[in-house]
Amino acid sequence: MSFSVRLTREALEDLQRLEEFLVETAIQHGDFDLPLRALDAIQQEMRILETNPYTCRRAGSNPLERELVIPFGGSGYVALFEILSEHEVAVSAIRHQREDDYH
User: Fold this and answer.
1) Are strands 4-7 and 75-85 parallel, antiparallel or unpaired?
2) Cα–Cα distance between 3 and 49 in angstroms, integer?
3) For residue 57, pLDDT beyond 70
4) Would you state the pLDDT for residue 54?
5) Domains (ranges, CATH) in the chain?
6) CA-to-CA dists, residue 38 to 62, 77, 83, angstroms
7) Residue 99 confidence class, pLDDT cut points 50, 70, 90
8) Among 7, 16, 24, 79, whose CB has the most other CB atoms within 10 angstroms?
């Protein structure tokens, strides 16, 4: 089974926010590859949604709403998504694991 994965406007805004934070952190610490490494890790792990979205943990009472844990460094990221049909997944938010909640 193959799923089409699309990111909502909110998820794209989350990625932009995370990238801006990573650029600031990279400048502060002199680790200029940090943003690219983090975004690559997110992109790589999101490929799981194309074939195995049901393996991700449930995010609430709706069994089709799930979270993908994306390891990176000492923590990582979490992508909130919903399985819309047997062929489509929509990512609605992405946050750092140390953030309190999705924005």
Assistant:
1) unpaired
2) 7
3) yes
4) 97
5) 4-96 (3.30.2310.20)
6) 29, 9, 25
7) confident
8) 79
Structure tokens at 102: 């999705």
Closest among 20, 30, 1, 27 to 96, alpha carbons compared:
20
Strand partners, 85: 88
pTM: 0.91
CA 24 to CA 29: how far, in whole Å?
Answer: 9
- Within a 10 A sphere around the Cβ of 72, how many other Cβ atoms? 18
Characterize the bridge pairing of strands 88-96 and 75-85: antiparallel
The two three-digit tokens of residue 21, written as one number: 């934070």
Q: Residue 38 carries which side chain, given as an amino acid letter?
A: A
